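quick one before i forget lol
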Amino acid sequence: MQIFKTHKIAVFLSSSGDISNFFECDHFSVFQKSGSDWNIERTEKFKIASFDSVKMLRNELSSVISCISDCNVVAGGELTGVAFSAFDMAGFHIFNINDISDETLSGILEDIEKGNSEEKYKQEIIKNACPIETETPGIYFLDLILLQTECPEISSKKSMMNFLENTPFLELKLICKHIPPWIENSGKYAISQTRQPDRITAVITKKQCN
């Protein structure tokens, strides 16, 4: 997850001070937030030199990245191709903007903070992507619909197989769209279910030995 190094944003500008894309910029200015205002901390002349190879372009990009190593947010006109990849691999947040204003620059930070919060929330879900014990000992619960809505990459096996095989439990209450076949067809579990139009509430218990 990317985080702020500082509240600084490097903006690519034309010779007239307007927003520019990277390949046509005349200089970049590093804006730093102070209170609710944004001020130019420094300005560096930069014009992409003509290049005959990707290697030469990467050298140019490396030079720019070194100049703004104290921040990890860049903004300006369109940034594509090798340039986008270089900034992305260096850990920069990349934004296309149409104007330079306190509102625009603050909006960039808000978007990053929101993205970081959402990513942190998602990582917490993934970390705890398994049934949780309720207030009643031995009774567990998992809303598989909610889990897979937030994290589609998490399969039912990933979230439940280890639990079912290694956790002593009396019953598992599962909210799902369908009973996972690997559970239903295993022959190991007794399953009772209540169907609603958009979900199934299943109660899963281990079958008792005869």
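fyi The chain has two domains: 8-123, 132-206.
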